Structures are given as C-alpha cells and as structure tokens.
C-alpha cells in the first residue's frame, strides 16, 4: 500500500476514534468509572487505617482523633468514646500527653490484611495489627496482635471512621469483653503467652 493511502487510512482511523471517544459515555464506560471510584475509595480507606497506627505511634492524638467522623465511636481496651474531642481525651488520659518533640523509640503498630468493602458513601473494613515493643535489651518484641472491625462514612468528601472496635487476639485480652470465656478443652495445658 502506498504511503499516501496509508496516511489517509491512519488519519481517518484516528479521526473516527476521536469522534467515538467524544460521544456520550457508554454503559461500559460508566461501569468502568464506578469500578475505578470503588478502587480509589478502597485506597483512601486503607490510608485512614494506616494513618491510625502512624498517629497513635507518634502520640499525635489530635491527628488520630481527626480520622473519626464527628459522631464517630472508638471502642478499645481504653474504653469507648464518641466524637473526635472525646477520643483525643481518652487517649491523653490513658497514655499521657507526649513531651514537645517526642519521638517514639519504644513501640509501633504494623497494620495488615485490610479487607475493604465500599457501598456508596459507607464502607466496612477489617484489618489486623501487630503491636511491637522494645525488649529490655532493645530488640523488637511482638506484645499484642489483634484485629479491627470498622465502619466508615464519607464526611465532606473525606473517608472517616464511624465506628472502630479493637479486638485483642494474641495474647487474648479484649477490653471490650472483660468476661472472657474459658479456654477450649483442646487448649488446656497449652502455655498462653503473657502480656508484657
């Protein structure tokens, strides 16, 4: 095929493609936009879950509390609080206010296995955490492992925690349920690790 004919065919194909692309969105384009929106929402929610641990480790209780909706509820071993101001106050009461310039060199949270389901402006999430502390000789030691169960809402275009419940898993110590059930018979005699 001669070069001028090829150029005309390619130019026509590009022009036709541009005309098609500027036509009204098809249902498949709309479906794709919805799928992308869900993926973006899931990523934004994962960032909320990660910042939760980051703020807690930095003792940035105002930042931590800002992750919650105006009527958001935090329920953990520290107790239950509703609204960012009350959530910040319960942390300060239990953990104390850090000194200016505080740098945490004694513990940190690892967040993992986030499962996020989005439904419009509401979402649910489940994740796990591992709380690491320093041993007397300065080595990292896993002190607690647990899971979070979250409900989130989009508030003023930003994803916020509406309800976060923390459940201790290893060692099993659940501040939300101090009346622990007896250990299963299969675990009788198995040494249970002690919290440090």
Automatic annotation (TrEMBL):
SnoaL-like domain: residues covered: 38-165
Signal peptide: 1-23
Keywords of this entry: Signal
Entries under SUPFAM superfamilies matching the protein: NTF2-like (SSF54427)
Superkingdom: Bacteria
Cited InterPro entries: NTF2-like_dom_sf, SnoaL-like
Entry annotated with the keyword Signal: yes
CDD domains: NTF2_like (cd00531)
Protein name: Nuclear transport factor 2 family protein
Biological source species: Sphingobium nicotianae
Lineage, opening ranks: Bacteria, Pseudomonadati, Pseudomonadota, Alphaproteobacteria, Sphingomonadales
């Amino acid at each position: 095929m001669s070069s001028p004919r090829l150029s005309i065919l390619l130019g026509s194909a590009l022009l036709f493609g541009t005309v098609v692309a500027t036509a009204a969105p098809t249902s498949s384009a709309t479906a794709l936009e919805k799928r992308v929106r869900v993926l973006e929402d899931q990523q934004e929610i994962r960032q909320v879950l990660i910042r939760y641990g980051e703020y807690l480790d930095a003792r940035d209780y105002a930042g931590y509390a800002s992750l919650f909706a105006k009527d958001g509820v935090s329920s953990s071993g520290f107790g239950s609080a509703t609204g960012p101001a009350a959530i910040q106050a319960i942390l300060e009461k239990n953990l104390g206010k850090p000194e200016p310039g505080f740098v945490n060199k004694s513990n940190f949270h690892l967040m993992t296995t986030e499962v996020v389901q989005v439904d419009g402006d509401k979402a649910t999430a489940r994740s796990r955490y591992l709380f690491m502390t320093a041993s007397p000789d300065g080595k990292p030691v896993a002190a607690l492992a647990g899971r979070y169960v979250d409900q989130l809402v989009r508030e003023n275009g930003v994803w916020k925690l509406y309800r976060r419940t923390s459940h201790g898993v290893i060692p099993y110590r659940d501040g939300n349920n101090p009346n622990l059930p007896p250990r299963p018979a299969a675990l009788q005699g198995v040494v249970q690790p002690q919290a440090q």
